[in-house]
Each structure stands twice: as C-alpha cells, then as structure tokens.
Amino acid sequence: MQIANGVLRHSMVPSCLALLAACAGGGMKQASSTSSYAGGGGAPAPSSMATADYGSPAHAAESYEPARPSQQSTIVQNDPAPERPGLGTTFGESVYAPISFAPFQRASASPWAEVLLHYNDADGVNAHASYLGATPEPLEVFAGDGSLSVALVDDAGRTLAGVQAGGRTLIMGQDGQRYRILVRNATTARFEIVASVDGLDVIDGKSADPNRRGYIVDPHDSLVIDGFRTSDSDVAAFRFGRVADSYAAKSSGDRNVGVVGLAIFAERGAVWSPAELQRRDTADPFPSRGYAMPPR
Fold it and tell me: pTM here?
C-alpha cells in the first residue's frame, strides 16, 4: 500500500482507484414492545338474612362467599410490527479489496453530478414497472453530461436489470445475491466517488454525507465498489437480503433501506468532459463588438 496525502487508492481492479477514510461498524439496536394490562372480574353478591316469616331453611341464615369472577383477567399484548417487504443490503462475507493513498482536490464543494438508484426484489420492481408501462432490462445510468456511468452488477459482472420511469431508477435484485457498484469514466480526468448504500457510507458504515471522502476513478477507467470497507485490505460484500437482516437495520435503522447513492466530484483543474470539449469546439472569437471598457 502506497501512502501519499491521505487519500486511499484501490488496487482490486486494473484501475487505480482511491479512497480517503476507514470503515467503522455500528452497534446493535433492539426494539422492545410494551404490554398493557386489562383487568376483569365480577362483583360479590349482597348478603341476606333468613327470616322465620318466610319459612327459610336453616342454612339460609348462614353468610356465603362472594360469587367468583365470571372471567379470568387477561393481559393484552401489542402485536409485533410486521416485517417490511422487499430487499435491503446485508453485511456480507469478507472480500479481499486492498487500497492505497493518493491526493485529490475537489474542484467544488458541490458534487459535479449525483446518481440515485432504488433497488427492490423482482415482485416490487415488476409491479412498479407494470404500473409505469415499462419493461425491466439491463440498466446503466449516465451521470452529469454522460461522461460517467453507474450500474449495479452481479458477482459475474453482469449488469442487473432495472427500469427508468417517472423520475426514478429501479434496480432488480434477488435475496442472497451478491452485487457490486460499477462506475465507468469515459473522460481524461479523475473523479472522486462518495458512495452510500441504505443511507450508510460504504467506507466507514456511518450515516452518509457527501462531505466525507471517497474513492477515485482514473481517466478512461472503471471503479468497482465491492462492499462496506472493514480494513485497508478487506470489505464486507454487498448482498441483498431481508430488510430485517440488513446492515442498516442492525446498526442505525432501516429508514433508508433500498437505495444506493453516489456523489461525484470533479478534480480541481481542467475536466475534459464532452461538455467542456463542446464549449471549446464552439468557442466564438468575436462574440460581440463594442468599445473597450476600463478595467474594474
């Protein structure tokens, strides 16, 4: 591992990829249910005195025990919350994915582009696709001006099927299936990729924030993010699973389960993207005519 100015460089794939933080795990969080008590019972019968006038039998003058309750007391317990349907991402097996460090200065504090991928099981995606009148097919999403693309791929590198409709991107997964995040860079510039899964940063496992540092994808290269980073050399593989089994549900909560996010930052300096090249190609040497103005 080569250490430079505090940025990590990923060497799992042929590309030189970089990252700038360490992964941190989360603690277990258990939910408890409360029970309420509802009591029940009958009232005792009033006592009576036997009188000679009515010719009551001798035993009628004796006092008697109160009537027993007609019902037993019952404890009412709250029903357990129903399990959420669909998929989450579990903290999978350890995968060897070494990194090294490299410097990177962002061109701006704001991302150059952002990508949002929702995922679900086949039933959920097919139902949504049918509602929108679309058909799932292998899906790669283009970011910014199209210079970078993002996809979820399986263990063999095949692009997972999905749907883009109604302003949403839906990716189809299967319970137990391993997946990776793939970013392709078609430019001559480097980009920094800050990625999150289920609202958790893929490097330290904490609540995701674009201000954290991320991986670097080199010019004309690809970045593969295999899982939640557990050390400089290993990650916990991304695997689809039940929401209750997801890393998020077992650490910070399942509110944001089912989404993959990427904040993409350009490097300070020239970014030779198609948009920048188009601007240079259409540059006008005489944009307007007029008189010289004094400098400000």
Answer: 0.66
As a three-state string, the secondary structure of the chain is CCCCCCCEEECCCCCCEEECCCCCCCCCCCCCCCEEEECCCCCCCCCCCCCHHHCCCHHHHCCCCCCCCCCCCEEEECCCCCCCCCEEEEEEEEEECCEEECCCCECCCCCCEEEEEEEECHHHHHHHHHHHCCCCEECCEEECCCCEEEEEEECCCCECEEEEECCEEEEECCCCCEEEEEEEECCCCCEEEEEEECCEECCCCCECCCCCCCEEECCCCEEEECEEECCCCEEEEEEEEEHHHCCCCCCCCCCCCCEEEEEEEEECCCCCCHHHHHHHHCCCCCCCCCCCCCCC
Residue 283 has a pLDDT of 87
Annotated domain spans of the chain? 8-22+83-279
Least confident of 33-42, 145-154, 190-199, 262-271: 33-42
pLDDT in tens, 22-35: 333 333 333 333 33
